[in-house]
Amino acid sequence: MSKVFTITEGLENMGALRTGGQGSVYKGRRYGPIITAVKLLPTPIHTESTDDKNFRNFQNEVEKLKKVNEEPNPNVVKILNSGITESGSFPFIEMEYIDGPDLEDLLKPPHEAIFSIKEVIKLADQLANALSHCHKVSVKHGDIKSNNVKFNVHTGNYVLLDFGLSAMSDDQRRTSIRHAGAIEFMAPEQNEGLMYFQTDVYSYGIILYELIGGQVPFPLKDNGETARNAVMLAHMESEIPDVMELRRKNLPESWSEEQKEMQMQVPAWLLKVVAKCLQKDINNRYANGIELQEALMQGSIGAISPTHPDESWNTEVLLKENERLQGLVLYYQENENKQPVEVVNSAPVDPKAVRMSKPIFIMFMILLCGFTVFSAVVMDKFGGRIYHGVVDRLFKPSKKPADTAATKVILPAKKDSVETKPNDFRDESNIPPEVDSTADSILRNIQRAKQQKEDTQFYRDSVKKADTSNLNF
Fold first, then answer.
1. CA distances, 164 to each of 65, 83, 177, 191, 293 (Å)
2. What interhelical angle do 197-213 and 117-136 show, nearest 10?
3. Of 15, 53, 191, 256, which sits 20 to 30 A from 6 (CA to CA)?
4. What is the pLDDT of residues 200-244, one digit of tens each?
């Protein structure tokens, strides 16, 4: 893009970003890679002297703007420099260049016509923070509209831009608004060129209304004078249409029925904030950005406070969101369990190793402990017997049975003359072995004595019968 004029020494003009009746915004570059945005005001100042009323007013307003950056704020654009252009003598304000789309772009295709509830609340909080920051140093913006709020793609914050009207005098502001202002966002009092802190609050409410409903309450059909007057008159006299009806009408077709139902549950406290911002009478609005920010904070706290049930977030929405989050947690847990576990720096697994699950291992340990206790009880009660039986079995020599053939004593047959009388019969089945053995020994001795007697008698008898005549003594 060709250069139209020189801004000032050391600031290169890289072409127009946006032009309008309230001034134009150009892209500038300092020596090096630093890119800035330069706002040129439409009324030229031919002399840089305090005697010039326009220059004096410009200088006063610029001094106010410098106070905005004395304390940095992530939602307010930084004011870098100001002065008069070398060609054309236009006053300019050099600001930080914000890389990203503005709200007007974010509400056009391929984007959805409305914002989600979460994003509306985010913007409401950040834009209220910007207004509160400016109003603390007595700076009124005066031109809050959707294309003066940008989304910074590098920080994820919404940033308030273009303090051009703040640097204008009342007469310049009145003329600029009447012919070139964004009439859809202007408060009723701005038709007369008036600007208060409550004026910024009203425009803030219009932005939230647009994000919730998908359009401003009184759209401008064309840029003709008749259409502009009709919109301004509507702001002054007509009631604000129901924003929830517009939201239902502008719900994206790509959303599921469940998503549509959830996104229709706009918090009651947020709708009350919007309604109060859009009051016709400035005395019925929030006094300034500071009071607006406090109202947002109280509303968000009341959403979870049991002492403010009428300002709740809608319990049904919170429950559904909680169920959705729990479902996501379960889903991710199941996927995590299905994924193979990666073992890092571990020893190789033995293929012959036996693996068992944790429940089976616990049951095995319980059975092992029970068997150990049972064994201890058995050993305590029968251990002595078991021990002696094992010792006798292993270490004591077993008694060999006597050779009955070698030691058997053949007793002489009893004479038939010995008769057993019936009353002499005894049952020897219950006689102990020791007694039976003793009796056998006695009987054997008696029989041996008899035998010796008989043998001796037999010897004597044989001697008597022998022939002893031939014996010589």
1. 10, 13, 12, 18, 24
2. 170
3. 53
4. 999 999 999 999 999 999 999 887 888 888 999 999 999 999 999
Burial class (CB in 10 A: 0-12, 13-18, 19+), 23: buried
Count how many domains the chain has: 1
Among candidate residues 300, 298, 301, 303, the one with its CA nearest the CA of residue 286: 298
CB 246 within 8 A of CB 213: yes
In a domain, 341, yes or no: no
CB atoms within 10 A of CB 49: 9
Do 77 and 96 form a contact (C-beta atoms < 8 A)?
A: yes
Q: Domain range for residue 256?
A: 99-331
Residue 396: predicted pLDDT:
60
Q: Are 214 and 220 in contact (CB under 8 A)?
A: no
Sheet of 35-40: strand order equals: 11-18, 24-30, 35-40, 91-96, 79-84
DSSP state, 25?
E
Q: What distance in Å separates the CA atoms of residue 140 and residue 165, rounded to the nearest whole number?
A: 9
Rounded Cα distance between 40 and 36, Å, is 13
Nearest to 176 by CA among 73, 8, 39: 39
How does residue 431 score in pLDDT terms, banded at 50, 70 and 90?
low
pLDDT at residue 351 greater than cutoff 60: no
Whole-model pTM?
0.59
Per the CB < 8 A criterion, the answer to whether 285 and 201 are in contact is yes
Does residue 427 lie in a domain region?
no
Span of 4-8, 102-106, 428-432 with lowest mean pLDDT: 428-432
H or E element in which residue 149 lies: strand 149-151
Q: Which residue has the higher pLDDT, 66 or 78?
A: 78
User: Could you give phi then psi for residue 308, rounded to 5 degrees?
Assistant: -130, 65
Which tokens sit at 187?
């408060």
Residue 84's DSSP bridge partners are: 91
- For residue range 88-116, what is the model confidence (pLDDT) as tens digits? 678 888 888 899 999 999 999 999 999 99
pLDDT in tens, 357-377: 777 888 888 888 888 888 877
Q: Which residue has the higher pLDDT, 365 or 50?
A: 365
Q: Which of 39, 59, 61 is nearest to 51 (CA)?
A: 59
**What's the CA gap between 373 and 405, in Å, rounded?**
54
Kindly state whether residue 303 falls inside one of the protein's structural domains. Answer: yes
- Cβ–Cβ < 8 Å for 135, 200: yes
- Rounded CA-CA distance 418/425 in Å is 13
Does 2 score more than 50 pLDDT? no
Is 419 part of a structural domain of the chain? no
